[in-house]
Design a protein that fits this description.
By secondary structure, this protein is mainly alpha-helical. The protein is 45% helix and 7% strand. A two-stranded antiparallel ribbon has the order 1-2.
Length: 249
């Protein structure tokens, strides 16, 4: 399965048209639940999230080949075959395009993994930030406040390597602060898919290096959830103050 398209509510009995742009499904959306660093005035929306500031989702162009298109409407299914051809105006071969697609799919999987890790980290950090605003600041709460602040900082330290946490999406703040994993993956996808040629050796090396870095970041977040969040939740339970919910992994 490379793409699912829906006609939506506008579809009615008769002739309807749905366009396929020859791309696969979009990568996982990033749901940020905290304000950008150094910009507390930039807050999340009514649904508790804000737009990812440094680019949109990644969608990989399908390689040449024969594809099955299944139409499902009113309980009836119809299937037809369509042929996607290589652009005849490019000098790259179909083998070049296949090699490019292979690397692009690896980048797509890394983008999904990074997005999933960011979403998990944001969910936990948002709970820690909210907890610090509601439990009060008396002597009895000082230990919890410090532990929550320390834990949130540890998670943010790893998360800051996954995307530009300073970016707001306003003005040119992206140009003033360094891009991180998501920004690097997005740029790599751009240069790899620029034309119908196989990826260069340097592009493959960058892809391998980013894959390794991402795996390390994922391990660090998983370790923080398994150890540090568990210890913090034990502290909360002792004080009958609930618990921080950790996304299932």
């Amino acid at each position: 399965m490379v793409r699912t398209l829906e006609a939506g509510k506008a579809a009615a009995a008769g002739v309807n048209r749905v366009w396929w742009d020859l791309r696969m499904d979009d990568t996982l959306a990033v749901s940020l639940r905290t304000s950008p660093r150094h910009a507390p005035d930039y807050r999340v929306g009514p649904d508790g999230t804000r737009k990812f500031p440094t680019g949109g989702p990644l969608s990989v162009l399908v390689p040449p080949g024969t594809y099955s298109v299944k139409l499902v409407a009113a309980g009836v299914e119809r299937t037809e075959q369509i042929l996607v051809r290589k652009d005849p105006n490019t000098t790259g071969t179909e083998a070049d395009v296949a090699a490019q697609t292979q690397v692009m799919l690896q980048i797509r999987d890394n983008v999904n993994a990074a997005a999933r890790t960011i979403n998990d980290a944001e969910l936990v950090r948002a709970q820690l930030i909210a907890l610090r605003t509601v439990i009060g600041d008396g002597d009895a709460q000082k230990a919890v406040l410090k532990a929550a602040g320390d834990l949130e900082a540890k998670i943010a330290d790893v998360e800051s390597r996954l995307f530009n946490m300073d970016a707001t999406g306003r003005g040119q703040d992206m140009l003033r602060t360094a891009g991180q994993m998501m920004e690097k993956l997005s740029h790599l996808a751009d240069v790899v898919s620029y034309a119908d040629f196989a990826p260069t050796e340097s592009q493959r090396e960058v892809n391998a290096a980013l894959t390794q870095q991402l795996a390390h970041n994922q391990e660090q977040i998983a370790g923080l959830f398994a150890r540090d969040v568990a210890l913090f939740n034990a502290m909360l339970r002792e004080r009958q103050m609930g618990a921080v919910v950790v996304p299932p992994r």
